[in-house]
Design a protein that fits this description.
Elements: H1 2-25, H2 30-34, H3 40-45, E1 47-48, H4 52-55, E2 63-64, E3 68-73, H5 75-87, E4 92-95, H6 102-107, E5 115-118, H7 125-132, E6 138-142, E7 147-148, H8 150-163, E8 166-170, E9 173-174, E10 179-189, E11 200-209, E12 215-224, E13 227-232
Helix pairs in contact: 1-7
């Protein structure tokens, strides 16, 4: 059994070494980008692009570069974050989220050539994510219901700040994130009594930063000519729009 453990550790280390080589080769990122540590004031001014309807709810109009975001809820919003970053020329990865919907991300505009998916990161997904922060703009990390010790979250958060990369953690507990973001499916329109074409999906979004009051809003995801558009909802859900019984069940 001891030899099996050693073999597993060696394979994991080889995977990490290969990831480090790939991160260093990404133009504009990698080792050359990690030499200079951005100042905190610069990072506050710079944000990753997000769908415009979501930007209205975020304190800086986007996800701050160098920040850590704790996310809960429907994966539709995660797909939108990845789509916005890659569509605007950034590079991103999804780690430890085995059932992530790539089709949904593509329909929101994601460029798959700039998106890496590591469904099975091995025994230490946090370390894999840490390596990816060296070369990517956005890393989405699924924790598999685990709780990361505060001593380690501080180290990873410092790494994200120094690289100017953004880490979004989900499906677990992460102490003291920069921002907490939650999105729940609250309704949909167009299906009638179980039939018809889905016209829109409504998300209730809750944003909590370390400073300032919580921000809340509703966003409709509307299919349009093979593309999913994000639209700010300004009116209440009508009675004809059927509520989903199990909130968050649709991703």
């Amino acid at each position: 059994m001891g030899s099996d453990v050693r073999v597993g550790d060696e394979k994991h280390q080889r995977k990490l070494d290969e990831l480090r080589r790939r991160m260093a080769a990404i133009p504009g990122r990698g080792e050359s980008a990690a030499v200079r540590i951005p100042r905190a004031a610069e990072l506050r001014r710079e944000s990753l692009p997000v769908p415009p309807a979501l930007a209205e709810l975020l304190p800086d109009g986007g996800l701050g570069k160098g920040s850590v975001v704790a996310y809960t809820g429907a994966r539709s919003l995660l797909a939108g974050l990845l789509a916005a970053v890659t569509e605007h020329g950034g590079h991103a990865a999804v780690v430890g989220v085995p059932r992530f919907g790539l089709l949904a991300a593509v329909e929101m505009g994601a460029e798959l050539a700039r998106l890496a998916v590591i469904a099975d990161p091995g025994p230490d997904p946090v370390e894999v994510a840490a390596v990816l922060l060296d070369g990517l703009d956005l890393v989405v990390l699924g924790l598999g219901n685990a709780s990361v010790p505060p001593s380690r979250t501080r180290v990873i958060a410092a790494r994200a700040r120094s690289r100017g990369a953004t880490l979004v953690v989900t499906d677990g507990h992460w102490a003291n994130p920069t921002l907490r973001l939650d999105a729940r499916v609250s309704g949909y329109a167009g299906l009638g009594a179980g039939h018809g074409r889905l016209r829109s999906l409504c998300l209730d979004v809750d944003v909590r930063a370390k400073a300032g009051p919580p921000r809340r809003g509703r966003i409709d995801l509307c299919p349009n000519a093979g593309r999913v558009e994000w639209v700010t909802r300004e009116t209440p859900i009508r009675s004809s729009e059927m509520p989903i019984a199990a909130r968050g069940a649709v991703s």
